[in-house]
């Protein structure tokens, strides 16, 4: 942890531990997973006593400013009656740093994302220790595999009409969707991993596979996108067939055959 971040956390914990409306705090994100480095932002979950939740939530920015000084950006996200996330930047002598602070009512703690006892930084009444839910990967759901594969081929088909229209922005959207579907299928080969954000998920893949997946990001014109579609189809087809074989499922070959025929005919007539 960067020294500026460590110092701010120490002072924030002290201040909030003195506020009786704050029942506890635990680490989340990369620090909880022990994958952090000096560039990581700090993710905290702050549990507030329900009767004082609104006042506590509304006072948090002022508290952070008193501790950390200037806060050039304060971003509320995903607010509900029970919780809100604040992403904010603070300035120190040697840089600008990011916090993600998720504030939640104590009654909603059972619905919060999992955490281990070792992640607890402060626990006034033992409510955190009593609600520990150790992080267990959800695992790969083989029941969704055929839907994922079919989804890929349906979206691959859409390239045809958007290439006819030279609609580069819809083509870029399709490339993003194909990438996401492909990543979802690759979970089949890492079923014990917690598949969450794709930028984290790719780290579980081999170096060769990570390099292959970059094909979805390299092209920004209709002509260039058209030039890689066959290779994209070939790579996905190989992965999807292996995944279906692994889980004893019949690969939807008719979907692939129809889409390949559609795109080949399109290119031959263009």
Automatic annotation (TrEMBL):
Domain of life: Bacteria
Protein name per its UniProtKB record: Polymerase nucleotidyl transferase domain-containing protein
Source organism of the structure: Candidatus Desantisbacteria bacterium CG_4_10_14_0_8_um_filter_48_22
């Amino acid at each position: 942890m960067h020294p500026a971040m460590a110092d701010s956390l120490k002072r924030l914990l002290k201040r909030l531990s003195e506020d009786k409306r704050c029942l506890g705090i635990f680490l989340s994100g990369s620090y909880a997973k022990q994958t952090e480095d000096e560039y990581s932002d700090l993710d905290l979950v702050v549990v507030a006593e329900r009767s004082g939740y609104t006042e506590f939530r509304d006072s948090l920015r002022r508290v952070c400013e008193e501790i950390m000084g200037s806060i050039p950006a304060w971003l509320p996200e995903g607010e509900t009656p029970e919780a809100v996330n604040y992403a904010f930047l603070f300035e120190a002598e040697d840089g600008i740093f990011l916090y993600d602070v998720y504030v939640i009512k104590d009654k909603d703690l059972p619905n919060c994302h999992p955490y281990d006892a070792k992640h607890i930084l402060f626990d006034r009444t033992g409510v955190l220790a009593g609600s520990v839910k150790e992080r267990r990967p959800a695992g790969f759901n083989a029941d969704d595999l055929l839907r994922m594969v079919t989804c890929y081929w349906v979206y691959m088909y859409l390239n045809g009409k958007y290439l006819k229209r030279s609609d580069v922005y819809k083509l870029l959207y399709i490339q993003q969707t194909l990438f996401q579907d492909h990543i979802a299928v690759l979970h089949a080969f890492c079923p014990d991993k917690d598949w969450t954000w794709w930028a984290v998920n790719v780290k579980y893949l081999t170096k060769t596979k990570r390099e292959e997946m970059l094909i979805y990001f390299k092209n920004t014109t209709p002509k260039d996108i058209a030039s890689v579609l066959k290779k994209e189809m070939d790579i996905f087809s190989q992965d999807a067939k292996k995944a279906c074989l692994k889980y004893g499922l019949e690969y939807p070959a008719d979907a692939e055959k129809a889409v390949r025929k559609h795109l080949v005919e399109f290119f031959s007539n263009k």
